[in-house]
Amino acid sequence: MALLTEFSAIRSGVERVAGRGVDLPTDEVMLARKLKHLGAAMTLRLQCLLQPHGLVEADFSALMQLFGSPSQSASPGELCDLTAQRPTNMTRIADALVRKRLATRGPDAVDRRRVILRITARGERLARTLLPQLSAEIHGAFAVLSARDKRQLDRLLQRLAASLDAHTEESDP
């Protein structure tokens, strides 16, 4: 189903719920659903490029964090934070990267209790191969927006992130 069709169907459902006397912030619910669906759609498009290489988006995201790191390495915990993954999934991701010889796993030189993942030459080659394709896909998705639109969207997303962070801090015990 096309995204705009999905949005219309979701709005109908949200409005039906609100029409049943439930106090529902309809506009905000729609924005949240749109963000979720747009993220999923972008992931699906990128997945089509990654699948022939035996990767999923979460694997590639972790690989890119290693590729972009000054030391070309990171701990699984650091990667969890940077890729929005849970520790159990990061274990699967790390296992996949090591199995595919895109990264190595070993003890930290300073704290041997800490595990470090390091990108391999093979991982770097794959990142360099995939980046132009992924960049073109992302560029195409945002081509409809002007530079000003993109800056405004970025500012709005930053504000939303700050609000979510503040709301999370307030609700944490």
Structure commentary:
This protein is mainly alpha-helical and 173 residues long. It has seven helices and three strands, in the order αααβααββαα. The chain has helices at residues 3-19, 26-50, 57-68, 76-83, 87-99, 121-142, 147-171, and strands at 73-74, 103-107, 115-119. It has a three-stranded antiparallel beta sheet with strand order 1-3-2. Strand 2 (103-107) and strand 3 (115-119) form a beta hairpin.
Question: Secondary-structure element order, as H and E?
Answer: HHHEHHEEHH
SS elements, strand count: 3
- The percent of residues in helical segments reads over 70%
Principal-axes geometry comes out as globular
Strand order of the largest sheet: 1-3-2
Mean pLDDT: 92
User: Beta fraction of the residues?
Assistant: 5-15%
Give a quick account of the main beta sheet: strands, pairing sense, barrel closure: 3 strands, antiparallel
Uncertain ranges = none
Report how far apart the termini are.
Answer: 41 Å
Number of helices: 7
Overall SS class = mainly alpha
The radius of gyration over CA amounts to 20 Å
Short descriptors:
single chain; 173 residues; mainly alpha; 71% helix
Give the arrangement of secondary structure elements.
Layout: H1 3-19, H2 26-50, H3 57-68, E1 73-74, H4 76-83, H5 87-99, E2 103-107, E3 115-119, H6 121-142, H7 147-171
Antiparallel strand pairs: 1-3, 2-3
Helix pairs in contact: 1-2, 2-6, 3-4, 3-5, 4-5
